[in-house]
Amino acid sequence: MLTINHLHKQFGSVTALSDVSFDVPDNQITGLIGQNGSGKSTTFHSILNFLRYGGEIRWNGQPIKEADFDSIGYLPEERSLMPKLTIEQQIVYLARLKSKPAKEIRPQIDGWLKKFAVKGKKTDKIKDLSKGNQQKVQLIVTLIHHPKLIILDEPFSGLDPVNADLLKQAILEARDQGAAIIFSSHDMANVEAVCDRLVMLRTGDVVLNGTIREVRDQFGKSEIYVTTDWTAEQLEQLPHVIKVQNIRGKRFLLRLDDPEKGPEVFDQLTDGKYIEEFSQQPPTLDEIFRMKAGISHE
Amino acid sequence: MNKTLIVAIETYLRQVKSWSFIMLVLSPFILLAISLGIGYTSATSSSDQQRIAVISEQPALRKEFIKANKDDVKASVTTNAAAQKSVDNNKLTGYLVLSADKNKVTGVYHSSDSIGTGMKTRVNVFLAQTQQQLNLANAKLSSKQMKSLAVQPAFKEKIKANHGGANLAKIISFWVLVFMIYMILITYSSVTAQEIASEKGTKVMEIIFSSTKASKYFVGKILGVFGVILTQIVVYIVGGYGFFQIAMHLDNIKSLIADNQSLVDGIIKNMLGINLLFVFLGVIIYTIISAFSGALVAKAEDAPKAAQPAIYLSMIAFFLTMPFQSNSDALIAKVLSYVPFFSSYFMPMRIINDNASGMEIGISLVILIASILLLTWYIGQIYEGLILQTDDTSFWKRLRRGLAYQK
Q1: Bridge partners of A14?
Q2: Three-state helix/strand/coil letters over B165-231
Q3: A157 at the B interface (CB within 8 A)?
Q4: pLDDT band at residue B390, thresholds of 50, 70 and 90?
Q5: Where do the domains of chain A lie?
Q6: Does any CB of chain B come closer than 8 Å to the CB of residue A12?
Q7: Is B212 on the interface with A (CB under 8 A)?
Q8: For residue B204, which residues of chain A lie inside 8 Å, CB to CB?
Q9: Neighbouring residues of B162: CB distance < 8 A, sequence distance ≥ 6
Q10: What is the CATH number of domain A220-281?
Q11: Of the four, A106, A130, A214, B306, which is 20 to 30 A from A61 by CA?
């Protein structure tokens, strides 16, 4: 397990991280979200020891040492490989730097290329690959040595839905093999789809931390999705409804001032009759993200 | 395998497999081969015209002449008519008709031009020797008389040590050495700066630094470049020796070298040994500085600019040596022969001029090696900070920030 305690980082007069604490447990995927400049990459760079920082970062109870580098798989935010090398040379070189012998890695390359549907042969030069395929090779490089701690900085950026699914699959597989995984993303749908836990940073502070369910439940079931013949104006007249949003056709989203009042709204809306849809839910991650991010602008 | 070694091997292989390196190493040999080839072809193509035919009714006499002058005789021509035809067609320079009776040996040379001096001497020597043998046979001498007639006059050559040759050897050695350092430095400063800067442009360094320590990576990188430099020097030495051996089979070069043997020996002695070590260490320390400059660029396109500090420093050292070439025991030359970056030029110059003691050479070497180690250690410590900073500020600002970086 990766433990971060009171992480602090200052760049000149700018505080990048003020007092960040959270855990990345084994066998779980932790999503690190936040707006641009919220401190996600600085957190990753601190874990990887690229920076001097205040506070404490521990891997299985110990400070991260050189010997632990072999157990780390890291995908940086900007994709980059060595353009003059072939796919095979690139994968083998970086795997050897993770102390994996070439003879162990070489036989696995074809399997990984197939798994990620990389278009090209392993003898093709990196510079001759499309951007998407280069990104896939970089993902292979991150995962092929079976790391125990996986750090992915914006892994889904630039991937189409098909390739994003391949990546999700690979991340879930690595989790099931016991790895502790942390990744940053702006796409809340991806975070919700694969993450067990969530940490949100806002200008260097942790504003959300917990499992997806815990985070969403913090905000209460303050939203109701209904499909009804009522008009928006009629719905606005219901007690405790503070906002009505027409999603499409007869489908509306009602926001309540008190989640406990859901049954009362249900009684009034249905009046004992059939209704096609009435679903009371906590806010989505996307809404929570917007809500939390929005506070900083107030 | 040790990660430093993995980086060194990768760097080495990538460089030596590149076309630019192969061309860099092979180009002098290609030029040499072309010039030797041209020389050989022109020598062989013109040789027939310069040869003669030998005609004689006494086969033994003809055979003996051919044996003594096989390079000058076209043996396939055996008759007067064939020889005359070849001369008329400009295929032979002339032909020699040899004859001998009981008392006299005669040689008649037929040609449209007078016989060349060298050939005339060789023909005269042959005729004189053959006539001598005939005379001795006709005189019917006892073996004792034969022996006393065979006594030759004595002639000995005693030459004092040639100071002029030694001085010439020093001058040639000096120029070859400084140009060698300078050329290797210019080449590898750019190669190293480019190599490091190109990685800074890509963020693959973040992946690498999540795998090994920056200092180990830096040392590996430098070791890889040293391997490349060493390969080039070894190829030049081995290839140079090979060409020397081939050239020694060419008569005119063989005689040229034989005539200047002491000069050639002097130059080879000055070029090898401790001076070569100074060259190699000099290239190393400049390479480290180039790597440091390469790490300071903001993007790969600036790499040629990044090599400039090392190249300028090298140029200053190079031009500073000029006035001291014949005055190497001046105080400034002595001082600079201990200063890293300058000592690789100045100490070999002093060694060539025989005014550096073993102790002085040793101290200069120790200072140079210690500087290399210290510099490598220091840059290794700040290397991560230099490579990971990608903001496009001014060169000096990045340098200042790089120097201030300590983890």
Answers
A1: A11
A2: HHHHHHHHHHHHHHHHHHHHHHHHHHHHHHHHHHHHHCCHHHHHHCCCCHHHHHHHHHHHHHHHHHH
A3: no
A4: low
A5: 2-217, 220-281
A6: no
A7: yes
A8: 80-82
A9: B262
A10: 3.30.70
A11: A214
Interface check A83 vs B, CB under 8 A = yes
Helix (H) or strand (E) holding A3: strand A2-11
Number of separate domains in chain B: 2
A151 and A73 Cβ atoms separated by less than 8 Å: yes
The domain of B122 spans 50-144
Share of chain A above pLDDT 90, in %: 50
User: How close B202 gets to chain A, by Cα (Å)?
Assistant: 5
* Digit-coded pLDDT (tens) for A38-69: 889 899 999 998 888 899 999 999 998 888 99
d(CA B217, CA B205): 10
Are both B282 and B137 inside the same structural domain?
no
Q: What is the CATH number of the domain that holds B98?
A: 3.40.190
Q: What is the mean pLDDT of residues A13-32?
A: 91
More confident residue, B46 or B253: B253
Mark whether B212 and B314 lie in a shared domain.
Answer: yes
Question: What is the rounded distance in angstroms from the CA atom of residue A106 to the CA atom of residue A64?
Answer: 29
Specify the length of chain A in residues.
298
Least trusted range by pLDDT, from A23-37, A78-92, A272-286, B28-42? B28-42
What is the predicted pLDDT for the residue at A296?
46
Contacts of A273 (CB under 8 A, 6+ apart): none
Q: Phi first, then psi: give them for residue B309, nearest 5 degrees.
A: -55, -45
pLDDT, tens digit (0-9, with 9 covering 90-100), for B342-357? 988 888 888 888 888 8
Q: Note the pLDDT tens digit of each residue in B96-137.
A: 998 888 888 899 998 888 888 788 888 888 888 888 888 888
What is the pLDDT at residue B392? 64
- Say whether residue A121 is in contact with chain B using an 8 A CB cutoff: no
- Residue in B with minimal Cα distance to A151: B210
Starting at the edge strand that comes first in sequence, how are the strands of the sheet with A14-24 ordered?
A14-24, A2-11, A54-59, A62-63
The Cα–Cα gap between B279 and B183 comes to 11
State residue B163's pLDDT score: 52
Task: Give the end of a domain, one of B81, B113, B144.
Answer: B144
Q: Which residues pair with A226 in a beta bridge?
A: A252, A278
In terms of CA atoms, which chain A residue is nearest residue B3? A97
